[in-house]
Amino acid sequence: MTAVEHDTGRAIRPFHVDVPDEVLAEMRRRIAGTVWPERETVPDASQGVPLATMQELAHHWATGYDWRACEARLNALPQFVTEIDGLDIHFVHVRSPHDGALPLVVNHGWPGSVIEQLKIVEPLTDPTAHGGSASDAFHVVIPSMPGYGFSGKPTSPGWGPERMARAWAALMERLGYTRYVAQGGDWGAFVVDQMGLQEPAGLLGIHTNMPATVPADVDRVLLAGGPPPPGLPAEEHRACEQLLRTYRQVEYARYMAARPQTLYGIADSPVGLAAWLLDHNDADGQPAAAVASALHRTTSASGQLTRDEVLDNITLYWLTNTGVSASRLYWEYRGGFFDAKGVAVPVAVSVFPGEQYQAPRSWAEQAYPRLVHYGQVERGGHFAAWEEPQLLSQEIRAGFRSLREPRVPEPRG
Amino acid sequence: MSAPTDPTSRTTGTTATAVPGPRTEADPTALRPFEVHVPEEDLADLRRRLAATRWPSRELVADRSQGVQLAAVQELCRYWATDHDWRACEARLNALPQFLTEIDGVDVHFLHVRSRHPDALPLVMTHGWPGSVVELLDSVGPLTDPTAHGGRAEDAFHLVLPSLPGYGFSAEPAELGWDSGRVARAWAELMDRLGYTRYVAQGGDVGAAVTDLMGRQAPEGLLGIHVNLLVTVLGGPPPGDTEQERAALEQLATFQQSGFGYFLEMATRPQTIGYALLDSPAALAAWMCDHDTDSYHKIARAFVDGQPAGNLTRDHVLDNITLYWLTGTGASAARSYWEDGGARAAAAASGQPPPPVAVPVGFTTFPGEIWRTPRSWAEQSYPTLSYFHEVDRGGHFAAWEEPELFAAEVRAAFRPLR
Predict the structure, then answer these.
(1) A273-326, pLDDT tens digit by residue?
(2) Domain annotation covers residue A233
(3) At residue A61, what are phi and psi to the nearest 5 degrees?
(4) CB neighbours of B155 closer than 8 A, spacing ≥ 6?
């Protein structure tokens, strides 16, 4: 998409990231001037992100890390801003060289950004160069959620996943896509579930790597603290145990749902922001084991998550001062988390072993009656696109393959 | 009290820690005189940081429902950087006898103000979070010198005001296990060390938890306790049979639904939030002002409208926040919630009810408190309840907001125990 529309309300304006040097210098000054707390009193991460982890990261952030490399990666992709529903929405838009490519809108989550998705752009748009076939190609649209990254910050309440879902449908329509699919994890999974519920014209189906499948009666039990209902099949019982663990590790989410504005420190302190963003859990730890191990990885030949990628994302939050505005999404949302929402469109599900819970096929089939794909992936976790871009890309291809068939019925609504 | 005096052990408060100065005495359990002297450069650094604060966008609502409002924090920080005088607070602290003594491996800071009345009753009074001894300074006069504050000589107390471990000028525990029960044992040791064989204890907030546990531990010499927060209700829902009980239950539910975030965060991830609290004065101030609804509105009004509630003035609020900043205790104070969370979980897992309080208990309900404790709840929690009164002013920070009224309650509660 290179054309620039001139109708101001619907104009699609090219966008380029260019952070002033002085802003980067100021960030480094603040990091170097950090006042640190004393060390935690435990030998593990049970009181939060350990001091040694933060000090090592901060040292690299202030002295070795190069934001300009991230900026160059972003600017190598076509980026745009367009106003939707009163707010400027930033998005990456990469068209495939293959004519028959399927348009796909990909949704990031918290504490993520479009940076999470950068490594899936090539495999999805140019599959023949990445072990796929031309018939698997996608035109990829990756918007920044309102309040995140280079999108505008809402100035009034109401920008929850429902409204974002409508905005993404408007975006796809504005880009001229009349038949498309949607993908997401974390908050992105909530948004694609909402798109599935709203069934905008043109939406052929969704793919989620954080499926919401928990039956209502089980969800009530788990939210009350368990234990799992008796007599469940082993897979469902295990999922219950995993969710109970997750619900003990989401105080950060409860806090942002209640008091996002009180987090002044994540606007004023780079280290305060970094610690807050790092303390998201996955199945193997809090902070997420995948991210904690990435902090020790300075280079990666195989696409594994590295320390600099983690810092790219944190730095994006810092430079855009979106720590608090991003947190408000938790405040906006009052719905359930992993409960089945009643999505009737075709749904593809990928289950990553490091995700909050492994959605059993039995639950996925109940939650998504038109389940077109159920894949259990061997590696990767909550940040699937970031951790295992090739595997997620393969899952997205496989998940949507059946929806490309010419005999797929038009979506309802 | 004849504390050993040693001018060389005078201690300087520093930004990093409250570690005491050089010890010249072999015995760390000796009482070492303490004074606060913050280096000028620490105050200059604080003002520099305040001036350089980077703010988030304004909240999207017209009330407190997304957290501390931008206008309130900005006005607080403006006043902090330009008008607040820490030296005045320092002088108030240093006008009172302060000491350090090592108890159970941690240096404990305390104020010790003896009454001039020889029959005064010794009283150990414990502050809470987000408080410090600063909360209690204005009750020192009424309690130790009642005749100068509308009371009688026989109402006098010898007053001991310790800083909780990890708070203020007490040291930060470097090991696990400093829950409120351990603090309660430390206070009994402190009173013993001061030579008090018959004494009483008082507290609100975390101080109420410590004081409650002192009552249950029943150290020799403890004659009775007075609390102004009913901490026992956090262990399970109390009855909702009467109109008053139902109203209090509703307040408790509101607190647990929307006012509990700081509590859960500190009880689970104190280190994570600690980074922001140590590095950003604005973050620390906002975090500390986001306690209960009543005190938030009072503090916000003090700054935004210039209308303080009682003694909860801009300067007093900032004295306390500045104390946290200068001692760098945002994380260590938060960690006390983590410790108490673990202790509560262990107690619940044991299935054993805590031992009852056997000494007389006094309770005062202040109307702005998070939940307005009815007499029936206090009676159920404390079968030895000997005093209950609901007063007409004051809130969660009762001693701070209404020091005279608070002192009158403490006198009344302990009068029969003399």
Answers:
(1) 999 999 999 999 999 999 999 999 998 877 889 999 999 999 999 999 999 999
(2) no
(3) -60, -40
(4) B146, B411, B415
A59 touches chain B (CB under 8 A): no
Instruction: Compare CB distances from B275 to A37, A156, A260 and report the shortest one's residue.
Output: A37
What is the Cα B43 distance to its own chain's centre?
24
With tokens 């975006």, the residue in question is A171
pLDDT digits (tens, 9 = 90+) for B251-288: 999 998 888 889 999 999 999 999 999 999 999 999 99
Can you name the residues that pair with A94 across neighbouring β-strands? A140
- B176, B265, B331 member nearest A255 (Cβ): B265
Q: What is the CATH number of the domain that holds B353?
A: 3.40.50.1820
Cβ B273 vs Cβ B266: under 8 Å: yes
Is A228 inside any structural domain? Answer: no
ipTM exceeding 0.90, yes/no? yes
Best to test chain A binding among B42, B45, B60, B290 (most A CBs inside 10 Å) = B60
Within 10 angstroms of residue B414's Cβ, the number of other Cβ atoms is 24
Which residues, 6 or more positions from A410, have their beta carbon under 8 angstroms from its beta carbon? none
The answer as to whether A98 is a domain residue is yes
Summarize pLDDT for B62-104 with one digit per residue, the tens.
999 999 999 999 999 999 999 999 999 999 999 999 999 999 9
CB A292 within 8 A of CB A285: yes
How far is the C-alpha of B195 from the C-alpha of B204, rounded, in Å?
25
User: Residue A4: pLDDT above 60?
Assistant: no
What is the CA B231 to chain-centroid distance, rounded?
Answer: 14
* Residue A265 structural domain: 8-23+67-213+250-404
**Cβ neighbours of residue A93 under 8 Å, at least 6 residues apart?**
A1, A78, A79, A80, A139, A140, A141, A142, A175
Six token digits for residue B175: 């090991």
pLDDT, tens digit, 9 for 90 and up, residues A193-222: 999 999 999 999 999 999 999 999 999 999
- Is A220 inside a domain boundary? no
Q: What is the pLDDT of residues A72-129, one digit of tens each?
A: 999 999 999 999 999 999 999 999 999 999 999 999 999 999 999 999 999 999 999 9
Interface of B with A in 334-393 (CB under 8 A): 335, 338
CATH number at residue A296: 3.40.50.1820
Instruction: State the average pLDDT over residues B281-298.
Output: 96
Whether B376 contacts B274, CB under 8 Å: no
Q: At what angle do helices B281-289 and B40-51 cross, to 10 degrees?
A: 80
DSSP conformation class of B290: -
User: Is the Cβ–Cβ distance between B385 and B379 less than 8 Å?
Assistant: yes
